[in-house]
Amino acid sequence: MPTCALAHETDWTGWRRATRGYVLARIEPADLSWTMGRGGDAVPETAGTFTLSRALVSLAAQAFQAREAERFGLLYTLVWRAHHGGLDLGDAGDLDLRIARRWALAVRADAHRMRTMVRFAQVTVDDQPHFLGWYEPDHFVLEANTRFMARRDPPGRFTIVTPDGTAHRDQDGLRFGAGLKHPGDDDTLLAWWDAHRDALLRDAHAGGGLPEAEELDEVPRPLDRPALGPVVLAERQTSATRELAREARGCERCALHRPATQTVFGEGPRDARVLFIGEQPGDQEDLIGRPFVGPAGQLLDEALEEVGIDRRRIMISNAVKHFKFNARGRRRIHQSPSPGEIDICRFWLDAERAAANPALLVLLGGSAGRAVLGRPVTVTRERGRPFSLPDGGTAFLTVHPSYLLRQPDEASRAREYAAFVRDLRAVKELINHGSE
Ligand code: URA
């Protein structure tokens, strides 16, 4: 059985070359093994060529970054099947495709999280400001994602450190080097940077590139926005409810799962003391797989930053975990979940609450209010003050950020935004001074 050795985890060029060679040499997926490093067999130099659909290449490029040992073989199988006419990308029941799509969705969510969650400390390199950030990715997203981030305008000089490697961008362009296990805290990261900086920059290499995976449809968080809180979080920035999220992926408790792209579960660190609850994922959240990343989420981020609440330290979820919409042509128009759908989905919200055990729940709007209090709420009347929950803990009701987006004019929008910020300041007080 031939063995194909790739140079590193994101050796896309090597994988494509090998895949082409072995498919043309008619090596069946079951007769080929994949490994990393040295010791592989020479790739057959078979004459000929074949083309793949852009959709398949783009899916493969995303799924290729998943931290899954089986991915090289599974993606080879997809290409093999496509070449032999046995792959229908529209077949929702195809198991190979379903696995690849699940990996691709997870990669996308992780890439987006990296873009919005990395906080930078300003350091100096060659008398120039340079931004140093830390991220611990779930998947191998550093390279493709940093190429995307590096296209920002105006260009900034930065280094992003991860356990898998570092990405540097300076006057010499974008390069990649060795990584660092979790540094522990900002001081350790900065000391490591001081000690290794010259060697890291000197030994950095151009990387391989995954151009098919570098989409350009989102704006990353600006480098020089002041870092709120530490650059390195002591707790890993991943969902405290990872197992639950995995379980919820296949949820079919109500009909909303059918048209939705994926389940959007809560996210936040293990030690979050506060859980923000919205209504349901919107269009962007459904595609990206993270809560509050679309327009309402960006407004929430802005208000959180204004009051000094670090989004990386709170947990954010929704009353309902699937996007409910009406399709009008290519547009998907948000529809509020029914009380019945909220009640059914409370199973997951309760599970998240039990797993994370936050002392404070911030209810964003009426659906979140209903999900937690089990009754209809009048947000305008009940907002802005804490109240005790029968099962312990405190809840705080305020408006949903999309209520601000729906305001008819600038003046009312500014007024409502200011009231929302006032509510969030009260939330910050509760976080700082205890809500137990
Ligand atoms: N609105 C919500 O309630 N939740 C999201 O995640 C996004 C928009």
Could you please describe the fold and organization of this structure?
By secondary structure, the chain is α/β, with parallel strands linked by helices. It folds into 3 domains: 3-107, no CATH class; 118-203; 239-435, Uracil-DNA glycosylase-like domain (Uracil-DNA Glycosylase, subunit E). Helices cover 39% and strands 15% of the residues. It is built from 14 helices and 14 strands. A 5-stranded mixed sheet has the order 3-4-5-6-7, sandwiched between helices. Helix 9 (295-307) packs across helix 14. The mean pLDDT is 92. Uracil binds at residues 278-282, 285, 291-292, 294, 296-297, 318, 402.
Largest sheet: 5 strands, mixed
CATH hierarchy: architecture of the largest domain = 3-Layer(aba) Sandwich
**CATH top level class name of the largest domain:** Alpha Beta
> The CATH topology of the largest domain is what?
Uracil-DNA Glycosylase, subunit E
Strand proportion, as a percent range, falls in 5-15%
Small molecules bound: uracil
Across the major sheet, the strand order is 3-4-5-6-7
Rounded mean pLDDT score: 92
Q: What is the global morphology? A: globular
Q: Whole-number radius of gyration?
A: 24 Å
**Low-confidence segments, ≥5 residues, pLDDT <50?**
none
Distance between the termini: 62 Å
Domains (count): 3
**CATH superfamily label of the largest domain:** Uracil-DNA glycosylase-like domain
The helicity comes to 25-40%
Total of helices: 14
